[in-house]
């Protein structure tokens, strides 16, 4: 009798081991199945979102991108981060290349006679430029209902951007000239601003800022909004609500946890 019991023990252990292995395999299979469902739902969600994107591949000039810019050291980076926290907005870092394409577009004016003779009219160049910028902004990050582009220097072409993108919105950041110039010199982001010529640096800041203000007025208050850096720092929620109301986007509490 004792021999029978001792002989059956390995069999029972083997049975229990098999049951445990089956349970583990079933759990793993369920997890994989559940993970696949979540991935599919996420992909479907992204597909829906991509269909709801503000971009229009057939008409890129109607893309309602949010452009953030202004003079150097005016808080464009802070504004980008505050908007990027919003669940409906994706606002990535400076793409850099979009400024270069605007510089290139400007340089083409010297060859317009030859270009038009070849059939490359100003309209063709504008469509290509807008399409390039839209493609960069869209593909540099995940899909979102609202896409934004941040680059201070591109606002040298603020008026041109307003003409290129009929549905775009523009946030013009302004900061006290003394603080802006000091930060620009300290960080060495623009060789035109040097510590040995502070008066010239302030005058240059004023000329650039005045031009951007004029360009913002040209675009119109419905599409171009001026935001003071100091106000954004002191009252971030007030300014964010103001911006989101202007952009017709609901305020999100996630912005409070920055």
UniProtKB/TrEMBL annotation:
Keyword Cell division among record annotations: no
SUPFAM superfamilies referenced in this protein's UniProt entry, alphabetically: P-loop containing nucleoside triphosphate hydrolases
Catalytic activity, reaction form: L-tyrosyl-[protein] + 3'-phosphoadenylyl sulfate = O-sulfo-L-tyrosine-[protein] + adenosine 3',5'-bisphosphate + H(+)
The keyword ATP-binding is annotated on this UniProt entry: no
A GO-annotated cellular component: Golgi apparatus
UniProt xrefs under InterPro entries: P-loop_NTPase, TPST-like
A Pfam family per the record: Sulfotransfer_3
A Gene Ontology molecular function term of the record: protein-tyrosine sulfotransferase activity
Alphabetic keyword roster: Transferase
Enzyme nomenclature, EC number: 2.8.2.20
Family: Belongs to the protein sulfotransferase family.
PANTHER family cross-referenced by the UniProt entry: PROTEIN-TYROSINE SULFOTRANSFERASE (PTHR12788:SF10), PROTEIN-TYROSINE SULFOTRANSFERASE 2 (PTHR12788)
Role of this protein: Catalyzes the O-sulfation of tyrosine residues within acidic motifs of polypeptides, using 3'-phosphoadenylyl sulfate (PAPS) as cosubstrate.
Protein name (record): Protein-tyrosine sulfotransferase
Organism: Trichobilharzia regenti
Lineage: Eukaryota, Metazoa, Spiralia, Lophotrochozoa, Platyhelminthes
């Amino acid at each position: 009798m004792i021999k029978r019991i001792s002989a059956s023990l390995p069999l029972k252990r083997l049975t229990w081991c098999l049951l445990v292995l089956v349970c583990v395999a079933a759990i793993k299979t369920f997890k994989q199945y559940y993970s696949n469902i979540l991935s599919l739902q996420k992909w479907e969600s992204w597909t829906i979102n991509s269909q709801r994107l503000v971009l229009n591949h057939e008409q890129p000039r109607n893309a309602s991108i949010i452009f953030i810019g202004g003079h150097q050291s005016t808080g464009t980076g802070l504004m980008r981060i505050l908007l990027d926290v919003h669940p409906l907005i994706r606002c990535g870092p400076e793409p850099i290349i979009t400024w270069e394409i605007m510089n290139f577009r400007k340089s083409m004016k010297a060859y317009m006679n030859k270009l038009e003779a070849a059939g490359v009219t100003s309209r063709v160049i504008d469509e290509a430029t807008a399409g390039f910028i839209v493609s960069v902004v869209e593909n540099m990050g995940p899909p979102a209902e609202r896409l934004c582009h941040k680059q201070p220097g591109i606002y040298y072409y603020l008026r041109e951007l307003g003409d290129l993108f009929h549905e775009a919105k523009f946030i013009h950041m302004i900061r006290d000239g003394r603080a802006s110039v000091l930060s620009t010199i300290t960080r060495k982001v623009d060789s035109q601003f040097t510590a040995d010529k502070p008066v010239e640096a302030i005058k240059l800041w004023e000329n650039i800022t005045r031009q951007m203000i004029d360009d913002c007025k040209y675009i119109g208050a419905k599409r171009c909004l001026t935001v003071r850096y100091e106000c954004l720092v002191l009252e971030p929620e007030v300014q964010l609500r103001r911006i989101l109301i202007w952009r017709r986007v609901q305020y999100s509490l996630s912005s409070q946890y920055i």
